[in-house]
Amino acid sequence: MAISASTYSHSVLLHPGRGQYPSLLLRATGGLGQGSPLHWPPGGDHSYNRPRTTACHQAIGPGAVGTDMWNTMKSRIAFLACVAALAGLASFCPANTPPAAYSHHRLEQIAGPYRFSLISWELRTLASVPAKMMGKETGNSLQSELQSRIKAVLKETGINESPPFSFRLESPPHLLIVSPRDRIAYLDRVVLCQDISLEQTEELEAQAGGLGLSSLVVELGGFGATYPAIVGTRYNLADTIEVAIEEWAHQYLALRPLGFLYLLDSIGVRRDLEIVIMNETLAGIVSREIGDRVYSRYYEAQGGAKTDRSASTFDFDAGMRQTRRAVDQLLGDGRVEEAERYMEERRQVFVAHGYHIRKLNQAYFAFHGIYGDDPASVSPAARDLEQLRAKSPSLKHFMEKAAAMKSYNELTRSLAK
After folding, report:
1. DSSP of 191-252, one letter per residue?
2. Shortest CA distance to 32 belongs to which of 294, 264, 380?
């Protein structure tokens, strides 16, 4: 993943790549998600999703999680092969095409020097496996502790741990999102490298803007397209737990109907924004519930109560919802430039209250809009999925039922029974 409930960057869809097989694999796994964004409280930095760290929960350093490297390597190969096979089958289906006035090829040319390479990342991390197996390279003990404790709680839920839970702590990739200027729409996206600078970010956004689009580059908080998943290193402990679970939830869903349909959207075969929102919102609900269990059982008694985000007198969620409604109205009336001036004015208000949003535009709302529980979203998915959870006898039952769904209508019909 939502902003008001989590402290990491949203999961996102990836757009079709250049057509070679490695790009197909990246496109296929790109729909697996990247966590959720945070509306940073005073002192935070929302523009780059830098989380709070308290004295009790310092940011966690880089390294691979997991003690059985051989099993991790086998799981990685099996998971990536499975997703690649699904993507290969999907690639034979006719793909939806973007509007004629828009050129994805041109956007890829602009972003080309900064693209993230899934194949290179997998090869680099696989190269470290032999050293770990021989004990020549050791991981962070806290990371191993987190993995074992999360797996223990996950086992208690009865949810099938497929693929096996595993993650790696390091800086996640960035994402370039573009939207039309005259409306809010998740038109296109390109995954970018992990170390792009602010100067390069602004240059890339300017070039994408030259195509007549609203553009935004965000640093992701997690990335579920790799296996193990990537989880950012600058989170406090509670948020690290949640984002790790959320990335696994996306991988779990990718092997089931709801997540497979998300994959089809990711590679441009079958666009379905409602499916996208359902996936992202479901993963967020599951990660928060399991994450709360892990945190309360193992860490809360150590004096590390979670920060109360309601302590601020400024209501960020209400302010962002008001902004979204006003922007939709202005764009609907064809007042594009007025809407853009209004968004900049509102951005300055948020910054004045300590919410350091670097850029607030149509692309921002398109990105955050795919998370049903985000105040920048207008989707009822969070409400409906929370209602389904309340009617379910267990988290396992809820997750399995939602994962088997193939449309938003199926969710609404289930709630009507």
Report:
1. EE-TT--HHHHHHHHHHHHTTTEEEEEEE-SEETTSSSEEE-SSS-HHHHHHHHHHHHHHHH
2. 264
Q: What is the C-alpha to C-alpha distance for residues 192 and 111, in angstroms, rounded to an integer?
A: 7
3-state secondary structure of 71: helix
Q: Diameter of the chain by CA atoms?
A: 65
Ramachandran quadrant class, 125 (left: phi over 0; alpha: psi -120 to 50; beta: rest): alpha
Q: Is 129 exposed, middle or buried (0-12, 13-18, 19+ CB in 10 A)?
A: middle
Can you give the pTM of this predicted structure? 0.79
| DSSP state for residue 115 in the 8-state scheme | B
Angle at 262 between CA 323 and CA 10, to 5 degrees: 40
Q: How far apart are CA 278 and CA 291, in angstroms?
A: 20
d(CA 111, CA 109): 6
CB 186 within 8 A of CB 213: no
pLDDT at 57: 38
Q: How far apart are CA 250 and CA 287, in angstroms?
A: 10
Q: Tokens 């599951």 label which residue?
A: 286
Angstrom distance (rounded) from CA 250 to CA 215: 25
pLDDT at 31 over 70: no
CA 235 to CA 84: how far, in whole Å?
31
Q: d(Cα 333, Cα 168) in Å, to the nearest integer?
A: 47
Averaged pLDDT score across all residues of the chain: 79
Q: Provide the pLDDT for residue 270.
A: 83
Give CA–CA dist 10/1, Å, rounded. 4
Give the model confidence (pLDDT) of 195-226 as tens digits: 999 999 999 999 999 999 999 999 999 999 89
Q: What count of other Cβ atoms lies within 10 Å of the Cβ of residue 135?
A: 7
Q: Which two tokens stand for residue 206?
A: 């300017």
Residue range 57-86, pLDDT digits in tens: 344 555 444 445 545 556 666 666 666 665
Q: How many Å is the Cα radius of gyration of the chain?
A: 20
Whether pLDDT at 130 is above 70: no
Q: Classify 45 as helix, strand or coil.
A: strand
Q: What percent of the chain has pLDDT over 90?
A: 57
Nearest to 86 by CA among 24, 38, 5, 162: 24
CA distance linking residue 346 with residue 378, whole number of Å? 18
Is the pLDDT at 136 greater than 60? The verdict is no
Is the predicted pLDDT of residue 50 greater than 50, yes or no? no
